[in-house]
Amino acid sequence: MKISFSNFLIALIPFLSLSACAQYPSVEWQISTAVLASPEEFRAQSTVLGYRENGILEVLRKGTNNMICLADNPETDGFSASSYHSDLEPFMERGRTLKTEGLDFKTIFDIRESEAKSGTLKMPTRATLYVLSGDINAQTQEIENTYLRYVIYIPFATPESTGLPTKPSIPSEPWLMDPGTHRAHIMISPERKKQI
């Protein structure tokens, strides 16, 4: 049987599409691992954002509470998922948009600072972000060596208004990062467990 080159290419299209998408984990895996960054009581009802073809971030699951979980970006090394209160979404979404424009961290910071001060970027009075990092087991696809840190955004807070230091003196001590700015937040970084 003679097969033309054009028929051969048409037959290959499904396989090419699959291979192009192979780097993106399944929706189910992204949801199940993204929610690990959230407190357990919020996981089942949280909204989950994850990645589809071409690295486009979209809603993988619409939730019914005020928490948003962000799945690990498969194009970065290691594993990192986060969970945050929905009041932070304008700030987070604006940062993602500016990053796609190729802007660096300082430029993004300055733009959001200006927008927050002018009122065009709505910032919450306070909101919590959880960041879970770890390693993906290549065989089981489970997340191992996990580490969870806590971030509480309190825009424009200062050491004077909170009584918090601007750097930790001991592990796990809460401290204030970016004081006096739209991005002021309390950092709580528990001491890492020793790996056995």
Provide structural commentary.
By secondary structure, the protein is an alpha+beta fold. It has one domain (25-188). The chain is built from 6 helices and 8 strands; from the N terminus they run αααββββααββαββ. A hairpin with a 7-residue loop joins strand 7 (175-177) and strand 8. The relative contact order is 0.11. Mean pLDDT is 89; it is low at 1-22.
Question: What secondary-structure arrangement, pairings included, does this model have?
Answer:
Elements: H1 5-21, H2 27-34, H3 40-43, E1 47-51, E2 57-61, E3 67-70, E4 79-85, H4 89-100, H5 105-118, E5 127-136, E6 143-153, H6 159-162, E7 175-177, E8 185-188
Parallel strand pairs: 1-3
Antiparallel strand pairs: 1-2, 3-4, 4-5, 5-6, 6-8, 7-8
From the alpha carbons, calculate the radius of gyration and give it in angstroms. Answer: 20 Å
Strand content: 25-35%
Q: How much helical structure, as a percent, in the residues?
A: 25-40%
Low-confidence blocks of residues: 1-22
Number of strands: 8
**How do the strands of the widest beta sheet line up side by side?**
2-1-3-4-5-6-8-7
From the structure provided, what is the oligomeric state, counting identical versus distinct chains? Answer: single chain
Give the termini separation.
61 Å
Secondary-structure element string = HHHEEEEHHEEHEE
| Total number of domains | 1
Determine the number of helices (DSSP H or I, runs of at least 4 residues).
6
Which structural category do the helix and sheet elements fall into?
A: alpha+beta
**Largest sheet composition:** 8 strands, mixed
Mean pLDDT: 89
Principal-axes geometry comes out as globular
